[in-house]
């Protein structure tokens, strides 16, 4: 039986990757190098400091911890300004209908995001009331692929890992679900998310019945 669904935020319910990119690219420009949309793919699902390390690697820069922390803060201030303009229009296609349907069918819903800005995004898009538990980057010590974020979500919902299904767009997130002992559905390309139990292009047309079909084999 499926008791709970755990959702990643960026790339599954909303597309904040474009705002992360705008901010990282702006930082790279200030530092004097180009950061491309392809480079940005490597940042999906990765924590803020780990993202900065990847960015600096692309730019061939080695900086001390204090400088890095100041750069991460600067990037975050820009990012927070970008997401302050978000509204419900930015919820990805199919997401709202699916969340409503899960609720009607008595399936519990949790957020499992690496972002420390998740509450701002949920508030601006009106998504808060759909969640029975919200676990984000302010509540976790270890980033995905560590299973912590999903295990905390299951615990708060009172669900066992084998009763949970994770929806994720990042490879590290699918690995985190596996390590948590949960089933997972990848949102995106099977090439990247092949380790998931099933992969779909988006939440468009996702239903509880379809979910059961996808994870029961
Ligand atoms: P912040 P998710 C992740 O969100 C993003 O995919 C990733 O690109 C970002 O670096 C990370 O959150 C941290 O975000 O800087 O806001 O704390 O996919 O786990 O919902
Ligand atoms: Mg994601």
Write the layout of secondary structure elements.
Blueprint: E1 4-7, H1 17-31, H2 37-41, H3 48-59, H4 65-83, H5 95-104, E2 108-112, H6 118-125, E3 133-135, H7 148-157, E4 164-168, H8 171-179, E5 183-187, H9 190-193, E6 198-200, H10 208-215
Parallel strand pairs: 1-2, 1-4, 2-3, 4-5, 5-6
Helix pairs in contact: 1-4, 3-4
Task: Give an overview in words.
It is globular and about 50 Å long. The chain has helices at residues 17-31, 37-41, 48-59, 65-83, 95-104, 118-125, 148-157, 171-179, 190-193, 208-215; strands spanning 4-7, 108-112, 133-135, 164-168, 183-187, 198-200. Helix 3 packs across helix 4 (65-83). A 6-stranded parallel β-sheet has the order 3-2-1-4-5-6. It starts with a strand and ends with a helix. With 217 residues, the protein is α/β, with parallel strands linked by helices. Strand 2, helix 6 and strand 3 form a beta-alpha-beta unit. The longest helix is centred in the middle third of the chain and has 19 residues, at 65-83. The protein contains 10 helices and 6 strands, in the order E-H-H-H-H-H-E-H-E-H-E-H-E-H-E-H. It comes from Paenibacillus favisporus. Keywords: Isomerase. One of its GO terms (molecular function) is beta-phosphoglucomutase activity. InterPro entries: B-phosphoglucomutase_hydrolase, Beta-PGM, HAD-like_sf, HAD-like_SPP, HAD-SF_hydro_IA, HAD_sf, PGP-like_dom2. Its EC number is 5.4.2.6.
């Amino acid at each position: 039986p499926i008791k709970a669904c755990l959702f990643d935020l960026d790339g599954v319910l909303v597309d904040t990757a474009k705002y992360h990119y705008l901010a990282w690219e702006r930082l790279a420009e200030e530092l004097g190098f180009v950061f491309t949309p392809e480079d940005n793919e490597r940042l999906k699902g990765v924590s803020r400091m780990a993202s900065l390390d990847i960015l600096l690697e692309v730019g061939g820069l080695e900086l001390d911890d204090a400088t890095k922390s100041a750069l991460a803060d600067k990037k975050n201030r820009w990012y927070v300004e970008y997401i302050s303009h978000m509204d419900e229009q930015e919820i990805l296609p199919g997401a709202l209908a699916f969340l409503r349907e899960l609720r009607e069918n008595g399936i519990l819903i949790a957020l499992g995001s690496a972002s420390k800005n998740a509450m701002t995004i949920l508030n601006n898009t009106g998504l808060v009331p759909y969640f029975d538990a919200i676990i984000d980057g302010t509540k976790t010590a270890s980033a995905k692929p560590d299973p912590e974020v999903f295990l905390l979500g299951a615990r708060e919902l009172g669900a066992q890992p084998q009763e949970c299904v994770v929806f994720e767009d990042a490879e590290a997130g699918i690995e985190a679900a596996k390590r948590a002992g949960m089933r997972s559905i990848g949102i995106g390309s099977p090439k990247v998310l092949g380790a998931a139990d099933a992969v779909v292009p988006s939440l468009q047309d996702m239903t509880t019945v379809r979910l059961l079909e996808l994870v029961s084999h």
